[in-house]
Every structure is written in structure tokens, then in C-alpha cells.
Amino acid sequence: MAAENQRAAACYHECKMPANDTHLPVNLLGQSAEELRAFMQSLSEPAYRGAQIYRALYAERRFDVAKMSNLPVALRERLAREACIALPQIVRRYRSGDGTLRYVLALPAAESGTGTKLTKPATVEAVFMPEENRQTICISTQAGCAVDCHFCLTATLGLIRNLTSGEIIGQVLIALEENRATLKPQTNVVLMGQGEPLLNYEPVTAALRILLDPNGMAITPKHTTLSTSGIIPGIDRLGCEKIRPKLAISLNASSDEQRDKIMPINRKYPIEDLLAACARYPLRPWEHLTFEYVLLGGFNDAPEDARRVAKLLANLRAKVNLIPWNPGELPYRKPDEARSEEFRRILDDKGVRAFVRYSRGQDVMAACGQLALLESAAPRAASSLEQISPAQ
Ligand code: SF4
Q1: Cβ of 268: how many Cβ atoms within 10 Å?
Q2: From the CA of 4, how far away is ligand 1's center (Å)?
Q3: Is the pLDDT of residue 271 over 70?
Q4: Does the first or last residue of the chain, that is N or C, have fewer Cβ atoms within 10 Å of its Cβ?
């Protein structure tokens, strides 16, 4: 894998977008089967070669065109000159005591053939969480975020830039490939890292089409969750997609007054409108909505909050994930276990399924955006966490 990383890093410098700059290598990563077929036709190759590349890249995770043995040698040689696979570059890895791996990934600037900057360089995080029978991969959809939730460290970065579909897919490919030897049969993907996915709609849905394609990365919709702060136009639009993941809503408050204080987006999309969008969201027979509720000690974790939340969600097919605040530098405290459990019990008693989730990898700065913040602001502080070499 170290060699793969070196190749990816090399490709990183050579590979630029967009695809129609004929003198620049074309980045294959993030392209759909149709786009790859069209690319093959533009090279006067049969269109089905595009489907072969698609399979080799996403289903078999071959990141070097020279190793796409389903292609003729002459085409592989041509692709080595004219195309590349620009994976994000692993800058650092951190392993938590519970086995969670956090990757700090560098994303390069993309330039056009005229040297015009299309995107600027950025750093994001992806997290790999192994469990007994499955692994969960948490990925970012933007570098930084503009939504400004007050309990979130990513918010303090502001929006740096949107990620491309290739940069979104690349995080899953890297996490799977790095852990190839120990992969369990089931993979869950959660879009809960840096960024608001529904504010980067087109690249996110393009990446999801590849992720959820049985001929692509073959992750099932049941095992893929997109989490939103409550962008109502995006929720409505996602509901119209043929291929879509499960939906999670970051609620975190029991009233508008409370939510306004920690999620300014609530002033634009208040709770009543948000829940109306949830009510019209077309759930599939097997599906439910997930509401995430970060328990901020002394702010939103009182029994009366639980009763209000139960009332708000009473008519929805929903479950609630309660996430006790993971202490960071922000001004909230961790609620004690008994209070979290009481909150859960009140919801349960009122017919709303609820679970207390303790976020994993806390010793590697598990709250979203924390590592990137350390990396950008104080690399020495980040280096005090357990860092592992590629060989480990
Ligand atoms: S919680 Fe999510 S939507 Fe809110 S600021 Fe953080 S990354 Fe953005």
C-alpha cells in the first residue's frame, strides 16, 4: 500500500483537470461509467472499454492503469500517458485505542490547461471504524463548512471549498484499500465528516451513484447515510433521486429558540418547516429517518427537552441517536451518563426509538473537523496523538 500511496502522490502532481484539456492527463477518478465510455470513444476506442475501466477502478480498486489487466497493453500504455487516478494523498494517520483510524488527506489544487486555478488545495479527514462484522467509513464532502453550528469545530474553519465527486469517492477507496487485509463483509459509509453534503449537491450525488452502483463500489443504500443540518431544498431534491442513501437530520434542540442559538441555519429553515420536509420525504418501505441529537450538558439535555423532542417527532417514522457531547475546546460540558440515559428513556416511553451513541475514536479527536483544525492551526499539537507509519 505504501507503494500505491507513492504512486498516488506522484499522480497528484501530474494529474490536472478538466478532462477536455487534451494536453493534460485526464483524471479518471469520480467519472461515471457513461463518462468513461465517452472518454474511450474520444480516444477512438470501443465504448465498452469505459465500463472495463469503471469496474477495475471502483469494484477492484486498481489505482494504476498499468495494472488494469482487463485492458489491452497498448491501451494501458496510452492511458498511462493520457490519464491518471488522482487519489487524495494521505498526510497522516492516527489510530485510536478502540481501533478507529483517522486519515488526514491532502487534496491538490486542480488547474486548467491555461494554468487557471479551478480549485485550491485543501485538507480533509476520513475515519475508518472497524467492528466485529462490519466497518464504517466516515467521509467529508466539503473542506471546512459554512453552516456554522456552534458545537462543531469544522465550523471554525469556514468553508474552504467544495470537494469533487472524485475526492469524495477517493476517501472511501483509500480507507478500504488501506485496510484490505482485515475487511469484514459489510461496509457502511456515512457522509458525516467535514461539510454540509446538501450544499455540495451535484458532486455528492455523483459520488453516491458510483458508491451505490452494484457494478461500482456496491455499497448498499441501507448501509449509506447522508447527514444534513437541515437544508430543506436539498432534502426535497434528494427525495426525488432514484439512487439515494438513508437520510439523517442533525436536530440538536427541542425548540426554535434553542436551535437558533447553536445552529444559525435554523433561522432560515426552522424546525416546523424542517419537520414538514421530513414528513413529505418519500421513505422506502424499509427506511426510517434518523435524527441526531448532540447532548450538550446543561443546554439541551433536560427531561423537558426530551419530552418536546418526542412531541416533535411523534408523527414521523424516525429514530433518534443521542450523542453525548465529546468534550473539546468549545464551551459545553459532557452530560453525565445517567442524564443521557434518562433522556433516552423518556423518548422510548413516548414511542420514539432512541439510542445513546458514544462517538468512537475520541482519543484521536473524533469530533468532526478537530484533526484538520489541529493540522492547520498547530501541527505540533496534532503530532502529540498516536501517529502510525504506513507499515503499521
Ligand atoms: S455540524 Fe456539519 S453542518 Fe454543522 S458546521 Fe459542522 S460540518 Fe457544518
Answers
A1: 10
A2: 32
A3: yes
A4: C
